[in-house]
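Re: [ENG-882] Designed sequences occasionally contain unexpected residues at chain ends

Forwarding the minimal case from QA. Structure tokens:
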């Protein structure tokens, strides 16, 4: 249980900043295709949908 108390973060770091994530959402709302977003941000389809699903 020590590792929970030492404020260690697990997992990979986010590939996109908050600004990029917001931009991605706005582009998708404007009708940009998922495939285009994948190529532009160098993300997988799952990652694009994950970022779109975040608040």
């Amino acid at each position: 249980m020590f590792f929970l108390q030492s404020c260690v973060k697990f997992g990979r770091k986010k590939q996109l900043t908050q600004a990029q994530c917001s931009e991605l959402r706005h582009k998708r709302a404007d009708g940009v295709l998922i495939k285009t977003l994948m190529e532009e941000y160098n993300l997988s389809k799952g990652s694009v949908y994950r970022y779109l699903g975040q608040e």
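QA comment: On inspection the terminal residues look reasonable. Helices lie at 2-5, 18-29, 34-41, 45-53. Proposing we downgrade this to a documentation issue.
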